[in-house]
Amino acid sequence: MATATKSKSKSGTSSHAANGHANGSAGNGFSKAAVTIFDQVGLPKDPDNLYTQTVSVMLHAAELMGLPDYLRLILAQPKNEIMVHFPVKMDNGKHELFKGYRVQHNNALGPYKGGLRFHHDVHLDDVKSLAFLMTMKCSLVGVPYGGGKGGIKVDPRQHSKTEMEHIVRRFTAAIAHNIGPDYDIPAPDVGSNSQHMAWIADTFSFLSEIGGDNPAAVITGKPIEYGGSLGREKATGQGVVDTLVEMLPELKLKPEKCTFSVLGYGNVGSWSGKIFQDKGAKMIAVADHTGFIRNDRGIDAYDLDTHVKKTGGVKGYAKATAISKEEFYKTKVDVFIPAALEQMIQEPEANMMNCRVVAEGANAPTTPAGERILMSKGIEVLPAILCNAGGVTVSYFEWVQNKTFQAWDLESVDAELNKHMVKAAQKTRKARAEFKCDLRTAAYIAALQRLKEAYEIRGLFP
Ligand code: NAD
Q: Which positions ≥6 away from 248 have C-beta within 8 Å?
């Protein structure tokens, strides 16, 4: 059971204490106000539950800023939770039944927006949490979207290209009436890629009476040849590095002098590594589902990317040494970039970590208990809704290009992305100064302020 402690970071700001505040803790480490909302919307008061953790961070920010109760209630549950089952014929002639999800959390600011995860361990609670984070992220980074997320319970590595195509197309058909270019716009996430997005756009286009002028705008992260945007593939990593460049100086760190490690070397991890290296930083240690590697003289991020694309993982990379999980987390670096799955920095990992800054490339990689430890060690956490918002921002640019039949050059995409990232960082900093809180709480407050303004002006139907 988590304890209701309140830690202090070296900068003297209180931790977000998602599992507890000094004021009025009501057991399990949650505040009384949070428990009241959990009871009203039927959430488990389980400190290990990812969705409860995610909502509790928002509720802490809501308490600090005085968000009206009705908004806390609305945001504590998604608007729609869609679950589908669909059969697909495998290469061997046998049928398998697959489970898919689409959760639409909130659309007060615009159409639902969020990725599709293809992973054997996808559950409704994960998808709900990720959809919730998209609502916060889109609000913070200033794009006109709400939050959604989806996925298929499938391990893409276990299927041939033909099987994956049939799975993806059949899933698209199953949710086709619940998505649309003006209603809900999915994108890639863990396990899904631009080829999958192309199949989704193509399948949806066949159902063209629901697609409007350009049905391919139903999804972003498409290949460049089929409506994709330059810069989308690297966008999340680019946004991570834009955030670092904006935030490191106030922590007395120079990007060009930094050492760093990366957990997860897929899209977000490899692009963060390559772009941070381009700024002069040195990658020392990397981990993924295949293993842990280190080279104190530096690992070339581009060369490692080639190895991973060829072999499927970092294991066996000849220009670094294989190390243990403990050695990986204990490696001394300036910046640690988690870019794998949720809840990977728990108490044991946080206890081992030896860095100055955690830049959350992944969604929800740090548990509240893990974060309390990081803060007690004076480690600054750049929260995911700020740090990894580059992906959805360039997805928004792709959608705008599709809707207006334009193609932007890479310089324009990068420059516009940087503007959004810097502005989101400034809003976060401003909220931190005003509410004297940690950066995660501050990012949530900045996101909630925009949502509050929209609700106040719109009002509630009826
Ligand atoms: P990806 O599938 O390209 O890469 C995932 C990486 O995580 C792989 O390197 C994999 O080996 C690693 N991994 C998986 N399980 C692991 C384990 N148990 N231990 C160590 N490593 C493990 O996915 P991605 O698109 O790079 O997404 C990574 C994270 O970033 C996710 O949290 C995702 O939600 C988030 N994110 C992605 C985007 C995007 O544009 N792709 C945008 C915002 C946030």
A: 254, 255, 258, 335, 357
Token pair of 103, please? 């959760």
Are residues 142 and 155 located together in one domain of the fold?
yes
Q: What separation in Å is there between the alpha carbon of 264 and the centre of ligand 1?
A: 6
Catalytic residue IDs: 149
pLDDT of 122-138, one tens digit each?
999 999 999 999 999 99
Q: What CATH number did the domain enclosing 368 receive?
A: 3.40.50.720
pTM for the model: 0.93
Q: Give CA separation, 208 vs 44, 115, 253, 461, in Å.
A: 41, 22, 52, 31
Report the number of distinct structural domains present in the chain. 3
Return the residue whose CA atom lies nearest to atom 3 of ligand 1: 266
| pLDDT, tens digit (0-9, with 9 covering 90-100), for 255-308 | 999 999 999 999 999 999 999 999 999 999 999 999 999 999 999 999 999 999
Domain residues for the domain of 221 are: 80-226
Verify that 94 and 222 share a domain, yes or no.
yes
Give the mutation target among 113, 135, 190, 394 for probing the ligand 1 site: most ligand atoms within 8 A of CB: 190
- Greater model confidence, 347 or 11: 347
391 lines ligand 1 (CB under 6 A): yes
Would you say residue 447 lies in a domain?
Answer: no
